[in-house]
Amino acid sequence: xxxxxxxxxxxxxxxxxxxxxxxxxxxxxxxxxxxxxxxxxxxxxxxxxxxxxxxxxxxxxxxxxxxxxxxxxxxxxxxxxxxxxxxxxxxxxxxxxxxxxxxxxxxxxxxxxxxxxxxxxxxxxxxxxxxxxxxxxxxxxxxxxxxxxxxxxxxxx
Length: 157
Prior knowledge:
With 157 residues, the protein is an alpha+beta fold. It has helices spanning 26-29, 32-36, 39-49, 73-79, 83-95, 140-153, and strands at 54-57, 60-64, 69-70, 99-103, 113-116. The longest helix is centred in the last third of the chain and has 14 residues, at 140-153.
C-alpha cells in the first residue's frame, strides 16, 4: 500500500485540497524589476503564470510550456476595459524582463505567443538586455505597411 500524500493546501489557501496554484518566488518579488511594476502589471503576470504547466516523470522535469503562453483577445477584454492598457502592461512586462514575445501574431491575425524570461534578474544592471521588440515602439510607417499587406492578402469580394 502506497503512502498517503499530505494535503497540499491549508484551508485559508484554497477551497479544495489540491487546487492549482501560481508559484512566485520571494527573490522575484523583492527584485527591482518587480517593484517597478504597477499592480495591474503584476496581476497580468500572475494571469500569464497561471497558464504555465510543467510535466514531471518520476519526480524529474520532462517538459513545459514556458515559451508557449498566449492570451486571446476575449480573455484580455475580460481583464481590461481598454485593450491599449493591456498592450502597455504587456510591454512593461517585456521591458522589465519578465516575458518575451516568442511569436507575433499581428500580421497573421493570430494570438501572440509569449515566453517567460530570466532577464528580470539583471534589470537595473549594466548587462541587462532590453527586449528585441515592443509593440509601443512600432512606428506608424511600419503599421501602415502592415495594414497594406493585410489588404493585399484579403480576397476580393
